[in-house]
Amino acid sequence: MTFQNTREFAQQLDAQDGLRAYRDQFIFPQHNGKNVVYFTGNSLGLQPKSASKFVQDVMNDWANLAVEGHFYAEKPWWDYHERFANPLSKIVGALPSEVTVMNTLTINLHLLMVSFYRPEGKRYKIICEEKAFPSDQYMFQSQVRVHGYDPKDAIVEVKRREGEHNIRHEDIIAKIKEVGDELALVLWGGVNYYTGQVFDLKAITEAGHAVGAYVGFDLAHAAGNIKLNLHDWDVDFAAWCSYKYMNSGPGNASGCFVHEKHHHTNLPRFAGWWGHNKERRFKMEPDFDPVHGANGWQVSNLPILSLAPYLASVELFDEVGMDRLIEKRNQLTAYLEFVLHDIDSQLDGADFEVITPQNQDERACQLSVYLHGQGRNLFDYLMQNGVITDWREPNVIRLAPAPFYCSYEDMYEFGQILKQGITELKK
Question: Is 303 inside any structural domain?
């Protein structure tokens, strides 16, 4: 398609958008009486209008049934989390028994590492990406210290080549082979939070398994954003937050994946009563008998008020399906990139650079833009003029046009505000 940077063309694309009705199912912050242009679904998704009803249903059940809501609510709290199994399994490409919801992301990664980081002898190293999200870095450091290792020795980062913004895929595979029989675990991000680079999770899994290591993924920026086939790729485990592209609300519950091949093994885990045999849970037995499947990794009973808005969003995903979301995501992101380059061409000199890979297979919803000759004052200008975006040091703004609720006209409108901001700030 030949794009045009005009409002009329953007409106034409919106008129052809099969998902355009879903925009009206989300609540937008307002700026001067208009919806903001919202680019931070990679940090916190917008609130689905249905979320408040799901929460109020729980509140009503609590008021009217009190403790009996565990078993007699319209959606009983006892098995509330089981409603996520089918829709989440479709989102991440898993069997329903391989997914669960519990806790929050870093807690779940810690819990999963109890099972899948099992250093022994010379096999004790972890491979991760350079500039992984800081929470993951802190987690790696604390985990290897618990086992008595020095993080500087046990944690192996795959780095970007000098002068490049993204990690080369061949360097990841080469590092896995190099570490070889010293490698206990590959724990990698599905999408790099800073650059928006999407990684080849299937190839990373195959390479890790080939040298005898477990392979897991932090899918914080991938779940609800990219096509995942965790079961078919033979991934050992994964976890993701739900409040970014999955629109569940601030700091909300995390999802987990454990491949079915591990469901009958004796892998160690930190146990709790919600992971115990469901039919015998209230018999208060002294010995742990885990639930079959990923639910056997649960520890405590679930925070139902937190799960309610997550379930509201998951039902929207189930209506639409990842294939349709990804189709719009690709075109919407391509149009945003076109608008950026067109605005840049109208200005005097190169004012910014897209550091996210151009190859569609290596990017998803996010474009990270490095500002040349501009600083945080441009970010501030955007925020003050109705564009909600994200600033990362030293000079990067992250733009994530989430396909559920962002429009093509939003992309055009952003381009005009960006151009005006750069022009005014140069005066």
Answer: yes
Tokens representing residue 333 in the block: 């992101």
pLDDT exceeds 80 at position 427: no
136 is in an annotated binding site: yes
The reported pTM is 0.95
182, part of any domain? yes
* pLDDT of the residue at 304: 97
Among 365, 357, 351, 422, CA closest to 399: 365
Q: Is residue 284 part of a domain?
A: yes
Q: What is the mean pLDDT of the chain?
A: 95
Is residue 135 annotated as involved in ligand binding?
yes
Instruction: Print the domain residue range for 71.
Output: 52-320
Distances (CA, A) of 378 to 348, 352, 369, 381: 16, 11, 12, 5
Indicate the residue among 269, 298, 320 that finishes a domain.
320
* Per-residue pLDDT at 350: 62
Any binding-site annotation on 40? no
pLDDT, position 349: 65
Q: How far is CA 207 from CA 124, 183, 309, in A?
A: 17, 11, 38
In a domain, 175, yes or no: yes
- CATH (domain of 399): 3.90.1150.10
Residue 273, annotated ligand binder? yes
Q: What stretches of 77-173 adopt beta strand conformation (E)?
A: 99-102, 125-129, 155-158
Q: Which residues contact 149 (CB under 8 A, 6 or more apart)?
A: 119, 124
Based on the fold, state whether residues 185 and 246 are members of the same structural domain.
Answer: yes
**Do the beta carbons of residue 89 and residue 99 sit within 8 Å?**
yes
What CATH code is carried by the domain that includes residue 171?
3.40.640.10
- What's the average model confidence in pLDDT over 9-25? 98
> Is 134 one of the annotated binding-site residues?
yes
On whether both 189 and 70 belong to a single domain, the answer is yes
- At residue 12, does pLDDT exceed 90? yes
Q: Can you tell me the mean pLDDT for 249-268?
A: 95
- Quote helix, strand, coil % in the chain, to nearest 5: 45, 15, 35
Rounded Cα gap, residues 115 and 275, in angstroms: 14
Token pair belonging to 133: 């999200």
Q: Do residue 255 and residue 385 come from a single domain?
A: no
Q: 188 has which bridge partners?
A: 217
333 in a known ligand binding site: no
Cα 188–chain centre separation: 13
171 annotated as belonging to a binding site for a ligand: no
Residues 381 and 288 in one domain: no
Do 245 and 354 reside in the same domain of the chain?
Answer: no
- Domain edge (last residue) among 270, 291, 320: 320
Asked if residue 401 belongs to a known ligand binding site, the reply is no
